[in-house]
Each structure stands twice: as C-alpha cells, then as structure tokens.
Design a protein that fits this description.
The protein is an alpha/beta fold. It has two domains: 11-312, TIM Barrel; 317-408, Galactose-binding domain-like (Jelly Rolls). 22% of the residues lie in helices and 27% in strands. The protein has helices at residues 11-19, 54-63, 103-114, 135-152, 173-183, 264-274, 295-312; strands at 21-25, 68-74, 118-122, 158-160, 188-190, 198-199, 217-218, 229-230, 240-245, 280-284, 317-322, 325-343, 351-360, 363-370, 377-396, 401-408. Strands 5-4-3-2-1-10-9-6 form an eight-stranded parallel sheet, sandwiched between helices. Strands 11-16-12-15-13-14 form a six-stranded antiparallel sheet, with no helix packed on it. The radius of gyration is 22 Å and the shape is globular.
C-alpha cells in the first residue's frame, strides 16, 4: 500500500456507473435516405415515419434492463428532431404530424413515464447550417440549439458530443460548458469540452483490460488516429463509455441489413468486455423508417437483457467487506464458473492487483489473476466445484473496499 492520493468520482459519476448499460438511438433524416452521413441537402419532406412510437424504443430498453437512453437530436446532417427556433431544417418542415411533431419531446416523455434517464446527442459538426463556416456565428447557433435542448426536455443524464467531422475545428467549449453547468449540472459530458465521461476509443463496444477510471488523454474521433486528445479541464476520474451498434457497421437503419444484426453471443462478448471491464456500454438500436424498432432487433435486445438477468441476477452467494483477503462461503459445494467483483468506488479505485482462488476441502485452485476491479469486474473460468472462494488483493492503494463479491453458476 502507498500513500498515493486517489481520484474519486463525483456523486453524479457514481450514479452513472450504476446505469451500466444504455440504449443509443440513431434516428433522423438518414433513416429515410439509406445513408449514414447525410450532407445536409436531403429535403425535410423525406422525413415521414408512418408509425413513430418512442414508447416502443424506450419501453424495449426498459424491458431489457437498460439504465439510460440517448437520442441523436441532431446528427452531422444538421436535421433537428425537435421544434427548434434556430433553423427550418427540422421536423417542423417535414410532413410528419404536419410539421407539429417533436421526436425529442416524445422520447423525453416516454423516458419520464418509464423512469428511464434521458440523454441527447447534438453533433457539433453540422453540414446544413449555412453559418457553419463562420466560427463565431456557428458558436452562437450551436449554443442556441443546445440551450433549447438543455431547457426544454427535463433532466438530462448525458450530453453526447461527437468528435467526428470536427477534427481540427475549435468550438467555444467554455461557453458550451457554462450552458451545461447552468441548466443541467448533473449531466455527464461525453468526451469534449470538460468531459466527465471519456470515449473508450473504438466503435466496437469494448474496453481494454485494465480500463482504469483515470485518464489524461482520450481519442477524439474515429478519424484521428492517436489517443492524444488532452483532457485538461477534466476531473481526474473520467470513466470510459463503450459505444457500438447492434447492426455491424451502421449506426442508422438501412433496408435489407438484417444480416448485419449481431448475434446474442456477440452481444454477450461485448458485454463481458465493456461492463465486465468496469466500463459502461452504450448499445445503438436504430429505429426503422416506420419509426419503430425492427422486430428482429427488438427481439435480440430483449434476449440480450434476459440472458444478462439469467446469468447474473441469482448469485450462489454474495458478500461485501474490506481488507486484503475475503472469503466467500458457498451454502454447499457447487459448480462455479463466474465471479463478479465490485469496489466501493466512491472511495477511489483502490485495488491494483488481485487473485481469485477456489477452495474445496483443503485444496485451493488459482482461478484468476487480475488488476483493475473498479465499478465491476466479471471473471469467467472453467467450471469447477468449490465450497468457498477467496479474493486476495495483492496490491492496492489504501485499504481495499469491496462492494460485492459474488459467485455464480451460469452453465451453458
Ligand atoms: C461517429 C459518427 O460519425 C457516427 O455516425 C455515429 O454517430 C457514432 C456514434 O459516432 O463518430
């Protein structure tokens, strides 16, 4: 143990860690144009969902056990899904609900009704706004859009600032952050400005291991090769969020791409390598041009949620405790194949190295040697029969505080 000063999360970050799994929702003019990145010239007339139902989106997330929901209020094409006063390039100019609809409001209402924390994505890069090339004018425009979203749709859990397309462009981050702090001080800020959440650095939904909760740099976008975005204004505790789409290679819905739907096994593998590495997983599930989740995608999300519950909602035994050695007694000798560990991260990420052992009678078998635990570590190993398990923390900064030590038999 050393006297090192530990970084600690804010209460808001702490609550965010517990959400663990979010649903991302890419929806907009692209949904109707079979494209990923509209150039801002597609006419609003194309935006015509026939049966848009935000309760279908949020309700599916809820049923599957997701902890939050984030909507693309505006993607790079500049088309706004809310009744903005900043531009005509929005739902107001579309035939949907005779121009009276507001997708952001419908999502905010569905989230409020279902008790689902709601977040928004507002692309800084805007390929429609005529003022985009005038830095100051666009800073005003963006601030006005953000203010509408920060003030009109209830509490927001996260503001997602996407770096894509903005490589080399400077926005007025001090002003943007002032708005966020004024109107939604509790919201997490993703990767730009003064981030409280950092991008994991890939779009595969996976975190490396270990994935410590402290970082001084983060990657800005898929189009900057290096990780060299300095996070100077950021608190030292800046956990990673892993984003990925349920359909390989596309964030928006496209016709005829059902074959790109990830299998349950692929989703579980992503889960083990994101949530299981202590990060948060943001899974994109894009609605189709009806404004509903495609049936197969919806079923896959529900299966995914059900499988997480089947695996991890009923531990064989569970304890919490502190110190370098904790023994978890099982009620009877049982097959075991998973352990979940969680630290009391409110007091910092203290464990730096640990071992997991399985005991049966006088015999001990080494199961795992790990480093970070943080919010959560999921370890799986070849099934064996044990009557107790032991956590040995072999290196830590201050006294280890273990929020949960759980054993499971998951089987096939
Ligand atoms: C990227 C964007 O360019 C994609 O379209 C998508 O929004 C993804 C989440 O972030 O940087």
């Amino acid at each position: 143990m050393t006297g090192e000063i530990l970084a600690k999360p804010t209460p808001e970050q702490l609550a965010w860690h517990d959400l663990e799994l979010g649903m991302f929702c890419h929806f907009g003019i692209n949904t109707f144009c079979n494209q990923e990145w509209g150039d801002g010239s597609d006419p609003p007339g194309k935006f015509r969902p026939t049966s848009l139902d935000a309760r279908d989106w949020v309700g599916t997330a809820k049923e599957a056990g997701f902890g939050y929901f984030i909507l693309t209020a505006k993607h790079h094409d500049g088309f706004c899904l809310w009744q903005t006063g900043t531009t005509d390039y929005s739902v107001r100019s579309s035939p949907w609900k005779n121009g009276k609809g507001d997708v952001v409001a419908e999502c905010a209402e569905a989230c409020a009704e279902l008790g689902m924390p709601f977040g928004i994505y507002l692309s800084p890069w805007d390929r429609n706004a005529p003022c985009y090339h005038d830095k100051e004018a666009y800073d005003d425009f963006y601030a006005a859009q953000l203010t509408e979203l920060l003030t009109g749709y209830g509490p927001l859990v996260e503001i997602w600032f996407d770096g894509a397309g903005s490589e080399g462009r400077e926005y007025d981050w001090p002003r943007i952050m002032e708005l966020v702090k004024k109107h939604q001080p509790q919201a997490m800020v993703f990767n730009m400005g003064e981030p409280t959440v950092r991008w994991v650095g890939n779009e595969d939904g996976v975190a490396p291991y270990p994935c410590w909760n402290t970082a001084k740099v983060a990657r800005q976008s898929m189009y900057t090769g290096d990780m060299a975005k300095w996070l100077p204004e950021t608190p030292p505790w800046v956990p990673a969020e892993c984003d990925v789409s349920i359909r390989k290679g596309s964030w928006f819905w496209h016709p005829g791409e059902e074959h790109k739907l990830r299998s349950l096994d692929e989703l579980l593998d992503i889960y083990y390598r994101s949530v299981g590495h202590g990060a948060v997983l943001l899974l994109n599930v894009p609605p189709d041009d009806r404004g509903l989740l495609p049936e197969a995608d919806k079923q896959r999300v529900l299966e995914f949620g059900a499988e997480i519950r089947r695996r991890f909602s009923r531990p064989l035994a569970e304890i919490r405790g502190e110190g370098n050695e904790l023994v978890l007694k099982l009620p009877r000798p049982s097959l075991v194949d998973h352990v979940i560990l969680m630290e009391e991260i409110a007091h910092g990420e203290r464990v730096r190295e640990y071992e997991l052992w399985a005991g049966r009678g006088d015999e001990w078998t080494l199961l795992v040697q790990g480093s970070a635990i943080g919010h959560k570590k999921i370890d799986r190993f070849t099934p064996l029969t044990a009557d107790r398990l032991k956590l040995r923390v072999t290196r830590s900064v201050q006294r280890p505080l273990i929020r949960a030590f759980r054993a499971y038999w998951v089987g096939e």
